[in-house]
Design a protein that fits this description.
Layout: E1 8-17, E2 21-27, E3 40-43, E4 46-54, E5 57-63, H1 64-69, E6 80-84, E7 104-113, E8 118-123, E9 137-140, E10 143-150, E11 154-159, H2 161-166, E12 177-182, H3 184-196
Antiparallel strand pairs: 1-2, 1-6, 2-5, 3-4, 3-6, 4-5, 7-8, 7-12, 8-11, 9-10, 9-12, 10-11
Length: 208
């Protein structure tokens, strides 16, 4: 489990095509300080498993399902990435509960600069729009953000100087893809309410 508070702005140093998957090598001296084989590190909001770690870099395999569902397929050597280690049990939840399980991708639509911040509009897949609400939480490329406005096909967020300077969102331009993860609590509530609407004893076999 993650919090959406980015620890380090890392960099892709190599991409190896393995046919139905890819192996990424990423530089992140901070997140690799205590990384071991089998540990998890979120890369642009995608929970990946460390294969090897040495000299401030780590490798991770990205399966076809992840390449299809996320924007990691667009990464190239030199791409900057948001990195976060899992939250330690008992640690502060600075953002919100983030699983690292990307629900889909959006696209940066526009950037509107203010005096000390920027308002960024992001496209929203129709299947995810019901989970994104004004003043609710959403994860964009692994960054926990508060929704300013929510429409059927897009939403906006305000980015403070720290977010602009220390994450990839300060560099993303209109047309660039981003990973989206909606609030998992909303999905669980929807699921539970759907089952409440079915009389007891009449649930589908798979739901029992």
């Amino acid at each position: 489990m993650f919090t959406g508070i980015i620890e380090e702005l890392g960099e892709v140093t190599a991409v190896e095509d393995l046919g139905d998957s890819r192996r990424l090598r990423l530089r992140g001296p901070l997140v690799t300080q205590d990384a071991r084989h089998g540990d998890s590190i979120a890369v642009n909001g995608v929970c990946l498993t460390v294969v090897e770690s040495a000299d401030g870099e780590f490798t991770a395999d990205v399966m076809a399902e992840t390449l299809h569902r996320s924007a990691l397929a667009a990464l190239l050597p030199g791409s900057r990435v948001n990195l976060e280690r899992p939250m330690a049990l008992g640690g502060r939840l600075g953002g919100h509960l983030v699983q690292g399980h990307v629900d889909g991708t959006g696209t940066i639509l526009s950037r509107t600069p203010g005096e000390h911040w920027e308002v960024v509009a992001v496209s929203l897949p129709p299947a995810l729009s019901r989970y994104v609400v004004e003043k609710g939480s959403v994860t964009v490329d692994g960054v926990s953000l508060t929704v300013v406005d929510a429409a059927a096909d897009h939403f906006t967020v305000s980015l403070i100087p720290t977010t602009l300077a220390l994450t990839t969102l300060g560099r993303k331009q209109p047309g660039d893809p981003v990973n989206l993860e909606v609030d998992v609590v909303a999905k669980y509530v929807e699921r539970m309410l759907a089952h409440r609407a079915v009389p007891a004893g009449q649930e589908p076999e798979a739901a029992r």
